[in-house]
From TrEMBL:
Superkingdom of the source species: Bacteria
Domain Thioredoxin: 12-194
Protein name in the entry: Redoxin domain-containing protein
Taxonomic lineage from the root: Bacteria, Pseudomonadati, Bacteroidota, Cytophagia, Cytophagales
Length: 196
């Protein structure tokens, strides 16, 4: 299941079944990964509700929702913020119908090998925070200080699962603006062949 670990961090492998979860999202819906069999799935792990880097990515993916769904790709988003913090944000409430799961204890962040790196976070803030914040502000996206229990060191990650919930693409970010390319996502959804 893992290709290794960094200190106590688990790192997931390609071509293995994704860790299955059965959780309640912030909208009160039961989200069971097993029920997604037969569809391709994008799982995104984001930082806190006020992070402009993550909110820009979510804003972009939201706009792709209908197109992805038409190509049999579903999305599930995780945030480290508490449910009440996410529900106090109009932007995050409007993420529905995409499931949005609050994981402040970071149980699933650890399970999926999400990295904590002060160095990567600091470098991203020093090199691209101002530009990212301006872009987020022009789109009306939330941007605020962290709430209780959130971490400045969380580094995002994105996963693509095939129709059998096998992990086919993993992107552990190298910085806060580093995400899986849209070309990779489209290549994945347009490739109907399921590898065995």
């Amino acid at each position: 299941m893992t290709s290794g670990s960094t200190s106590n961090r688990i790192i997931l492998d390609l071509n293995v079944t994704a860790p299955v979860f059965e959780l309640i999202d912030i909208f009160g819906r039961a989200i069971n990964l097993q029920s997604y069999k037969g569809r391709k799935v994008f799982i995104g792990f984001f930082r806190h509700a006020g992070c402009p880097f993550c909110n820009l990515r979510v804003h972009f993916l939201q706009k792709m929702y209908e197109e992805f769904k038409a190509k049999n790709l579903e999305m599930i988003f995780f945030f480290e913020s508490k449910e009440k913090v996410l529900l106090s944000s109009l932007f995050h409430k409007e993420i529905s119908p995409i499931p949005l799961i609050s994981d402040p204890e970071k149980i699933w962040y650890q399970t999926y090998g999400i990295e904590n790196s002060a160095l990567k976070s600091t470098m991203s803030h020093l090199t691209s925070f101002i530009q990212t914040a301006i872009k987020a502000k022009t789109k009306g996206l939330p941007m605020h200080l962290m709430a209780d229990g959130e971490s400045i060191n969380t580094i995002p990650a994105e996963f693509l699962l095939d129709e059998n919930l096998i992990i086919r693409k993993i992107h552990y970010a190298k910085g806060l603006n580093d995400r899986m390319s849209i070309e990779h996502i489209f290549d994945f959804v347009e490739n109907e062949k399921v590898l065995s």
